[in-house]
Design brief:
This protein has 97 residues and is of the alpha/beta class. Helices cover 44% and strands 24% of the residues. The strands form two sheets. Strands 1-3-5 form a three-stranded parallel β-sheet.
């Protein structure tokens, strides 16, 4: 199945603020087999956010579109950018096969 757009989180994501995002991702994966996450409005993300994305990546088609530099740096520092699908734009994420 093609992933669904519809998740555009905003703000900061850490252990305390992650449950609603996890619920959205889980629902999209259950309904569509994957998800495109528009990361452009994320201002902070910690290791719990990264863990959620890596776990989702292992079970579904996850595409993380347009992450800001702070999030891209997190991915780069731990090497997640070599594993995760990170298109530069939402449109690229939607059209990726």
């Amino acid at each position: 199945m093609r992933p669904d757009i519809g998740i555009s989180p905003r703000g900061e994501f850490d252990l305390d603020s992650l449950p609603p995002l996890k619920a959205q991702i889980d629902a999209a994966v259950a309904a569509h087999g994957g998800v495109v996450l528009d990361a452009g409005d994320i201002t902070f993300a910690d290791s719990s956010f990264l863990g959620l994305l890596l776990a989702t990546h292992q079970q579904a088609d996850l595409r993380i579109a347009a992450p800001p530099s702070t999030v891209a740096r997190l991915f780069s520092v731990v090497g997640a950018d070599t594993v995760l699908r990170i298109p530069p734009t939402v449109q690229d994420a939607l059209s990726a096969a």
